[in-house]
Amino acid sequence: MTEPKHLYLVDGSGYIFRAYHSLPPMTRTDGTPVNAVYGFTAMLMKLLADMDADHLAVIFDKARVSFRNEIYPLYKAQRPPPPEDLIPQFPLIREAVRAFNVPCIERDGFEADDLIATYAKRARAEGAIVTVVSSDKDLMQLVGEGVALFDPMKNRAIGPAEVFEKFGVAPDKVIDVQALAGDAVDNVPGVPGIGVKTAAQLIGEYGDLETLLARAAEIKQPKRRQSLLDHAEAARISLQLVRLRDDVEVSETLADFATAEPDAEVLAGFLAENGFRSLLARVTAVAHAKAGTTPQPAAAPADDDYVLVNTLAELGVWIAKARAAGLVAIDTETDSLKARRATLVGVSLAITPGRACYIPFAHGLRKAEGLDFDGAAPPVANIEDKAAALALLGDLLRDPGVLKVGHNLKFDLHVLANAGLSDVAPVDDTMVLSYVLDGTLHGHGMDELAGLHLGRRTITFEEVCGKGKGQITFDQVPLDKAVAYAAEDADVTLRLYLLLRDRLLKEHMVRVHETLDRPMVRILTDMEAAGVRVDALRLKALSGDFAKRMGDLEDQIHALAGHAFNVASPKQLGEVLFEEMSLTGGKKSRKTGAWSTDAQVLDQLAAEGHDLPARVLDWRQYAKLKGTYTDALVAEIDERTGRVHTTYGLTVTATGRLSSNDPNLQNIPVRSEAGRKIREAFIAAPGHLLISADYSQIELRLVAHVAGITALRQAFAEGKDIHAITASQVFGVPVEGMDPMVRRQAKAINFGIIYGISAHGLAQQLGVGRPEAAAFITAYFARFPEIRSYMETVKEEARTVGWVATPFGRRIPIPGIQDKNPAARAFAERQAINAPIQGGAADIIKRAMIALPPALEQAGLATRMLLQVHDELIFEAPEAEAETAAALVKRVMETAVTLTDDQGERTVPLEVDTGIAASWAEAH
Fold it and tell me: Pairing between strand 906-908 and 899-900?
C-alpha cells in the first residue's frame, strides 16, 4: 500500500527526553549508557502495537541550530547542552527506529516540528488523516480537520477542544497567542507583561496579531498599550519563530512511510546487542502469536546451574557454602499469596551468580485433578526428613555471620515463621534497596528489575502454574519446572543485590538504607504478625447503624428529587442534578458524555446551599465507612488470632511514607463522629491498654527547620501556640484575646503553604474571596520571607538534578519538573516543595520505630508496637506497665533525631502527645 489513509508522525525528540528522565541510569555490557534507548524502544514498541496507521515515520531534530537562529540569534540560546550520558544514546535511538523498519527522518536547518508540519500538510492534500504523536504545545497549531495530536504517556487525544482549553483560542490562532506571550523555554521574546490568558483575550477581540499591533493605541490599559507599542517588532519576530514551516523541501515521499514488518533478525540483533532481553522476549512472544505457535516456558540461561536438593547431605553442602560465603539469597514458594496463611512448599538458595538450588518440602501432597504433565504424573521427590531439613535451615537463617537477602523479604519471613523458622537475621531486601536508590521512578517487582538491570526475562508464575480456572498451586508443579522457576528467583535476587549494593556505595545512599529502610523490614514484619484486636460485635452494630442512616438519607434525597433513583449511580445522579433540577456548574465527561458528580462538584453545589448534593455527600460518607471499614474489617479478622493484620508497604509512596493494605488502616477518618466510632472498635486485649503516641505538628516543625524561619523556631522552642503566633506575626494582632477565626485562617495558611496551596484553594478553604486569600498569602511571605527562599531553592534543586532530598538524605525523584505542560510542571513544583517535609516526617517516625523495640526490651517491658498511622504509633501494653511504657515511648520518639543547624545548635524540638485507654479512639 502506498496511498496513505492514516499517517502517524512521531515527535522523536520528545520521546527521547521523556525516556531519559523517566528511567534511572542503565548501561550495557561495554559501559555505554542505554536508559534513554531502552525507554524509547519500549515506547515505540507499544505505539506500534496499539496504532491503526498504515503509514508511519519518526521525526528528529538534527541539530540545535535552525533557520530560526538566523531570524533571532538568541532563539533557544539559553538551553543547556544535553546530559553527557544522553549524547552517546542519540545515534542508538535512531538505530532502534531503523531496527523496527520505521523511517527515521531529520534535516539540517529545520526542527522536527517543521518536518511534521510539512508531511501533515502533504498527507491532508492526499486525503489521509494525520495523528501527530506528541503533547508539545508548539505542534498544537497543526490541529484541525483531519489532524490531531496524541499524548502516548497520558493515552489521550488532543483535538481543538483541548487546544482551546490550553490556549483559549482555536488552533489556527495559537501562533498569535504564542507570539504575544513568548516562551521562556525557547527564548521567544513575546511582549513583556502579556501571558497566555491575556494574549487569548486580545486575539479573541482583535482577530490576529497584526490587527492587534495596528490598533494597539486603542488598548485601554496604559501599561499593556505601551508594552504592545514598544515591543511590536519583537512580537512580529516571535510570530516567525513560533510559526511552523509546512513547505520544507524533503526527499522522502509519503509512500516511503508505508508500514512494514521489521526484519526479525535485525531487530533481535539490536535488542540483544543492547542487552534488552525483556524487550526481546516480548518481540518473540508477539512473533509466536502472529504465527499461531505456542512459546515454550523460558528455561534457565545456558550458563546457569540450577539444581534440585532433596537429601540432607546435599543440603548440608549448600549450607556450608553459604556460611563460607557469608551471604545467601533466599526465596520461598508457597500455596497461597496470603503470607501469614501460606504453607511452605519449598525454599531456594543462591550463593554465587548463576548457581542456585531448590529444596522441595511439600510437592505433590494433594491430588492434581484434571492435570496432565505430558501424559505422566508429576514426579515427587521432596526433601528427606523434613523436620531435620528445617532444623538445618533454621540454624543457617539464625546465623549472625551470614547475611540473608530476599526480594520483598517480609513475605518470606512470614512464611518461614509459619514453618517454625523465626528469628531470621541479619537480613537485607533487594526491593528496598531498589526503592532507596530510585524511589518511584519505576516499579520494584523482581521481573521488572531483572529486565531493567539485568536485561533478563524471568520465568513467569503463569508459565509454570497456568492461569484462570486451570491455574494450579505451586505444590502441584512438576519438580523440573519448579527448580527452574524457584532457583531463578534466588539467583536473580542475588544478582540484583550485588548490583544494587554497589550503586548504594557509589551514589552515597548507604546511610539512608542502613538507618531508615533496611531495619524496617524486621520491624514491620513483627507489627504485621502482632495485628490489632477489633470488636466484631461493635463493628457489626455500626454497619447496621450506617445502613439505617443511608436508608434515611436515600428517602430524603428521593423526596428532594421528587422521585426514586439509584443514589449510587453517578449517571442517574448527574441527570437529576443538571437536567431535572437545572443546577449550574455541571461538566460532562468527554469520554462517556455523563455528568461529573465527584466530591468536588458536590461540595461546590452544597456550598451554594443546595440540599440534595449535601445529602448525597453524607450518604457517600456512610457508604464508604460501611463498605471499606465496618463490613470489611469484620471479614479481615484472622480466625486463629482474633485480630486484624494489615500489610505495610515500604516501597510504594514517593516520599518514603509507609502504605497500609489488606486492610488499609491509615485512612480511617479521625475528624468525623462516624470515623471516631470506628476507632472505638480497635481495642486492647484483656488485661491490656492501648497507647497512642502522636508527633505534634511535625511537618510545621520541619518547615521551620529546613526553611530557617527564626520566628517559628523560637515559637516552637518556647512551646507557644504556633497558629496564634503565625496569626499575630502575619495579621499584626495580639495573641491574647485573639479571634478564633483569625487563628483558623493562620492555621489554614500554615498547612496550605506546605502543600503549595494557591489563592483559589485557600479562598475555597476559608470561604473568602480570592483577592482576600491572595492578600493573606502575600502577607505570610512578607512576614516569613525564608519560606519563599526555601521554595525557590528547592525547585531549582529539583530542576538541576531531578530530585529533592529530605533532611536525612532520602532522595525523592521529581520526574515532571521539566515538563513543558505548565499544569504538570506546577504540580511537580508543589511536589518538590512538599516532598522534603513529608519525607522528612516519614524518616523521623521510622527512626523512632527502629529505636523503640530494643528500648522497650531493654527496659524489661512487654509492650508491643502494633500500628503506624502517618505521624502516630499505637502500642499494646499490659495495664500494670502502661504508664511506664508511655513515658518511655514519648522520650524515645522525641529524641529519635535532633534537628540542628549548621553550627550544631538545635533548631526545633520534637514533641509527642500520648494517651492511654482501652480503645484507639479514647487513647488518641
Answer: antiparallel
Report the pLDDT value the prediction gives residue 377, as an integer from 0 to 100.
45
> Which cell numbers in the block locate residue 686?
484483656
- Report d(CA 193, CA 209) in Å as an integer: 16
Q: Collect all residues with Cβ–Cβ distance below 8 Å to 583 and sequence separation of at least 6.
A: 577, 605, 610, 613
Instruction: Tell me the pairing of strands 129-133 and 6-11.
Output: parallel
Q: Is 733 helix (H, G, I), strand (E, B) or coil?
A: coil
Contact of 851 with 898, CB cutoff 8 Å? no
CB of 658 closer than 8 Å to CB of 517: no
Cis peptide before 83 (omega within 30 of 0): no
DSSP states along 56-75: EEEE----S-BTHHHH-TTT
pLDDT in tens, 138-166: 999 999 989 999 987 667 889 898 899 88
Chain centroid offset of residue 365 CA: 41
> Residue 69 and residue 599: Cα distance in Å, rounded?
50
pLDDT digits (tens, 9 = 90+) for 468-491: 888 889 998 988 899 999 999 999
- Tell which residue, 207, 209, 200, has the closest CA to residue 228: 209
526 vs 410: CA distance, rounded Å: 9
Residues paired with residue 908 on neighbouring β-strands, in sequence order = 899
Q: Which three cell numbers stand for residue 145?
A: 480537520
For residue 737 the three cell numbers come to 484575646
Q: Please name the residues in contact with 370: beta carbons below 8 A apart, sequence gap of 6 or more.
A: 470
Read off the C-alpha cell for 397.
537463617
Give percent of the chain with pLDDT exceeding 90.
52
Longest Cα–Cα distance of the chain, Å, equals 97
Region label for 76, one of left (φ > 0), alpha (ψ between -120 and 50) or beta (otherwise): left
Question: How confident is residue 441, by pLDDT bands cut at 50, 70 and 90?
Answer: confident
Q: Identity (one letter) of the amino acid at 44?
A: L
Domains of the chain: 6-257 (3.40.50.1010), 305-507 (3.30.420.10), 510-531+648-698+811-924 (3.30.70.370), 545-644 (1.20.1060.10), 699-810 (1.10.150.20)
Nine cell digits for residue 97: 527506529
Which run of H or of E encompasses 325? Answer: helix 312-325
Task: Note the pTM of the prediction, 2 decimals.
Answer: 0.67
| Burial environment of residue 201 by CB neighbours within 10 A (0 to 12, 13 to 18, 19 or more) | middle
CA–CA separation, 535 vs 551, rounded Å? 25
Q: Are 584 and 548 in contact (CB under 8 A)?
A: no
And the C-alpha cell for 237?
519576530
Instruction: Determine the angle formed by the axes of helices 277-291 and 35-50, rounding to 10 degrees.
Output: 20
User: Alpha-carbon distance 593 to 507, whole Å?
Assistant: 50
Give Cα 356 to chain centroid, integer Å: 34
Contact between 178 and 189 under an 8 Å Cβ cutoff? The reply is no
Query: Do 135 and 151 touch, CB atoms closer than 8 A?
Result: yes
Q: Helix or strand or coil: residue 686? A: coil
The three grid cell numbers given for residue 27, joined into one nine-digit string: 548501561
CA 858 to chain centre: 39
| Kind plus residue range of the DSSP H or E element containing 675 | helix 673-680
Question: Among 18-22, 71-75, 209-213, 309-313, which is the least confidently predicted range?
Answer: 18-22
> Cα 467 to chain center, whole Å?
28
Report whether 113 contacts 50 (CB < 8 A).
Answer: no
Give the three-state DSSP class for 900. Answer: strand
Distance, CA of 300 to CA of 244 (rounded, Å): 53
Q: Is 877 helix (H, G, I), strand (E, B) or coil?
A: strand
C-alpha distances in angstroms, 632 versus 339, 636, 764? 19, 6, 34
SS3 state of residue 351: strand
Contact between 164 and 170 (Cβ < 8 Å)? yes
- What pLDDT, on a 0 to 100 scale, did the predictor assign at position 290? 62
The 3-class secondary structure across 831-875, one letter per residue, is: HHHHHHHHHHHHHHHHHHHHHHHHHHHHCCCCCEEEEEECCEEEE
